[in-house]
Design a protein that fits this description.
Blueprint: H1 2-14, H2 18-32, H3 40-50, H4 56-80, H5 85-91, E1 92-94, H6 98-105, E2 110-114, H7 120-130, E3 134-139, H8 145-155, E4 161-164, H9 168-174, E5 180-185, E6 197-201, E7 204-208, H10 211-219, E8 223-232, E9 235-244, H11 254-269, H12 289-303
Parallel strand pairs: 1-9, 2-5, 2-8, 3-4, 3-5
Antiparallel strand pairs: 6-7, 8-9
Helix pairs in contact: 1-4, 2-4, 3-4
Length: 306
């Protein structure tokens, strides 16, 4: 069934111009705010808890703008299957590429970190076109083997190499001679609350993935945060922020706090562009949080000789 839908429906749609796809998804937008309320309770609950000081009307406005953006992402996601190299360059402009260029000139590998904000999928597709670094994306396989294979085929056609989080070291070993940028999206809900970094995020105690910081310290790679801004439908700019060139000199948690706070600033500024339909706060904070933090800090300091 998935194969049938992909070749007979998704692929033909992807060849349509974006303006035509937007017309189709505008119709879908009307459906999901009326007839098919996609994850409405999750979206409303997430927004309410994140913005407790906003009025009910303001939160509703965020919700409706989010659904409109989500349907834009649907159109752009379909288009990404057959988007061209020139299409990527036309639709994503890096405003300060010198941040990455300077690191590349020094032959420094990079951890490129952000979240599911604006069109991250086009970044995955086009990272190898946007920067001189060899693009490597860290991800988890989809439950459907067919969709996992097809999506990763499309993601990699411009040079991106997608690897499983558990296998990334082997891939890096094979590419020792290349200067690399490893893409990590770190705003998902972690699988284990006891292995998470707990902090305040959007007015809530939040479990944050520690992978980017752990990877940066293990590999001694500089960390760069990227923020996508939506200029108009199908057009984005990317701004880079260097978090650190020397991760091994930072204390436990500093990198995680930095990239999470930078993402939070973007969300607070334009909340409709974050993925509110994700069950972000499904992990409960452990009761022994202070002792857990002390234990995590001690293990980190021992591992990295701090």
């Amino acid at each position: 069934m998935a194969k049938f839908g992909y070749y007979l429906f998704i692929i033909p749609l992807s060849y349509l111009p974006l303006p035509v796809l937007y017309i189709l998804t505008d119709i879908f937008y009307l459906l999901i705010i009326t007839v098919i309320p996609y994850r409405r309770r999750v979206v409303e609950k997430n927004i309410e808890r994140s913005f407790p000081n906003k009025s009910k009307r303001e939160r509703k406005r965020i919700k409706l703008k989010f659904y409109r953006h989500l349907t834009d992402l649907l159109a752009e996601g379909i288009k990404s299957i057959t988007i061209s190299e020139s299409g990527i360059h036309k639709r994503i402009k890096v405003v300060n590429p010198e941040v990455m260029d300077r690191l590349y000139a020094k032959k420094q590998n990079v951890i490129l970190v952000s979240g599911h904000y604006n069109n991250w999928e086009w970044v995955v597709n086009g990272q190898d076109l946007l920067f001189k670094h060899k693009a490597i994306g860290i991800g988890m396989p989809l439950s459907s083997k067919f969709w996992d294979k097809k999506i990763n085929e499309r993601r990699s056609r411009f040079g991106m190499t997608v690897v499983h989080a558990k296998n990334y070291k082997a891939e890096l070993e094979k590419r020792k001679a290349e200067v690399k940028a490893i893409l990590v999206l770190s705003d998902q809900s972690p699988g284990n609350s006891l292995k998470s970094y707990w902090m305040d995020f959007l007015n809530q105690k939040t479990a944050v993935l520690f992978g980017a910081e752990l990877m940066a310290n293990t590999l001694d790679y500089p960390v760069v945060f990227f923020a996508l801004k939506k200029v108009k439908r199908g057009s984005y700019t990317m701004k880079l922020t260097l978090i650190t060139e020397k991760p091994t000199e930072l204390k436990w948690g500093e990198i995680t706090v930095s990239h999470t706070k930078l993402l939070e600033e973007e969300i607070v500024s334009n909340p409709q562009y974050w993925l509110w339909s994700h069950k972000r706060w499904k992990r409960e904070m452990p009761g022994n949080i202070e002792s857990l933090k002390n234990e995590q800090r001690e293990k980190f300091n021992t591992k990295f000789n701090r």
